[in-house]
Amino acid sequence: MSLLGGLLFVVSALVVRGSSISTIEENYLKFPAGFLIGTATAAYQIEGAWNVSDKSENVWDRFTHEPRPGRIVNNDTGDVACDSYHKYKKDVELLREIGFDVYRLSLSWSRILPNGFANKISQDGLDYYKKVLAELEANGIEPLVTLYHWDHPQIIEDLGGWTNEEIVDYFGDYARVVFRELGPRVKYFCTINEPEEFCARGYGLGTKAPGKEIHGIGEYLCSHNVLKAHARAYHIYDKEFRPTQNGTIGIVLSLSYAYPKDPDDATSVETHFQFNAGWFCHPIFSASGDYPSLMKEKIASASLEQGYPRSRLPEFSQEWIEYIRGSSDFLGVNHYTSTLVEPGVESVVPSVFADRKIILSPDPSWPRANSSWLYVVPKGFGDLLRLLAKEYNNPVMYVTENGVSAAEETNDLNRIQYFHDYLKEMLLAMNRDGVNVKGYLAWSLLDNFEWTQGYSERFGLVHVDFNDPERKRTLKMSANWWKNVLKTRKLEPVPAGPQSSCCTAIPV
Ligand code: NOJ
């Protein structure tokens, strides 16, 4: 063979090999048949209509109305929010226009049960959700309904809220009403959204509703009752409703991924995983149930050092361990960001954050979004999904939230880049590595009330003008990108153009 011939052979072999690699990669980047793609919202963040009809006050109504300067950016409230209570038809029209398969919404407990208890059911409250579900059905969109996204009735809070074990019964009663009245139209239920957030910040640090500062004790009482209440709702559904309704029900957790600051420090990574995921996953998804032993040991020894007569983490009886174990058909994964970890103590003592004895920080090279906590680390998403699959026997997972905050803009190329890069990691974890993800929901359909950040952080695919009494909605570029993804059912490239505030390195 001549020199030229030899060269051509090498080049063509590379091309063939290159194209076959890219074909494999392209196949990995398709959504499998039956995969559900959607977007998510939550009642308090979008509905408004906080006091219409017989709806009663909930903990976020109280938390935002209490005159505490500095608690919420601009003293914003969810009183009107996106006014989705009145504009739900427009929201469903947007969902249809973009082409989503599923819509994750949550129900307001105090809209359905104004007394908090099941002795009085609000007809108006039920009718509202029945109309929303009918509208979704008429437009061919599957609902995924969360029973509880942080907004329990104030009356329940006056009795201690999630720190009072009676809530297990109250939540079960509420769940039963929902399953009976709305269940015939719902195939996917989520029980409770991100308990670690409202337990650690609502009953620990006091920075979220209900604003209780009982750190070290409050968050663990809360998580204990959350796990029981979740399992109660699961068993009610399983026994009383699944036989006729045939749906599926699971819990939704806020899960992040950790990399070690010192490459040899596997201990801090494991500690982060057990306190972040294990706290709720181990009792439900592990073979043995109960809290992770690492967590039990760390909290017991810190409690002892601090002079407590027993661990601040309550214990489950064997009966409860078994009742909770296996009480989820799927794991709902809310994922946004990753962190670095190293040994040390952060936050107030005692608290769940101090008990774990690790310090979290971002890698300086990670771009930051518009939220102080949200660093863009696509690889962490794939690593997290693979780790969850490995630890919990590859459970069925739905990514129930994933998204990014950005400045007020409609040409949100940065958000497209985020979705593109995160979806790529998820698709590789699924299609190449066999992780069992069955659906993905982008957070969020609309710019909305971002809790203590009010309306200052925008996560929507659709812009909402909060100065307009009509709350005008305008599709952002990211919504149009999603339209293409939903048409082709594969990862679409990011359009060229300048990217703005989100996803460019912002000094920490
Ligand atoms: C998770 C929460 O479930 C949701 O309510 C919130 O808006 C997003 N994170 C973004 O912070």
TrEMBL record:
Coiled-coil residue spans: none
Pfam families linked to this entry: Glyco_hydro_1
The keyword Signal appears for this protein: yes
UniProt keyword list: Glycoprotein, Glycosidase, Hydrolase, Signal
Any one GO BP annotation for this protein: carbohydrate metabolic process
Gene Ontology terms, MF aspect: beta-glucosidase activity
Group of enzyme by EC: hydrolase
Active site per database record: E401 (nucleophile)
Signal peptide: 1-18
InterPro entries: GH (IPR017853), Glyco_hydro_1 (IPR001360), Glyco_hydro_1_AS (IPR018120)
Record-listed E.C. numbers: 3.2.1.21
Complex and partners: Homodimer.
Family: Belongs to the glycosyl hydrolase 1 family.
Protein name: beta-glucosidase
Organism: Cephus cinctus (Wheat stem sawfly)
Lineage: Eukaryota, Metazoa, Ecdysozoa, Arthropoda, Hexapoda
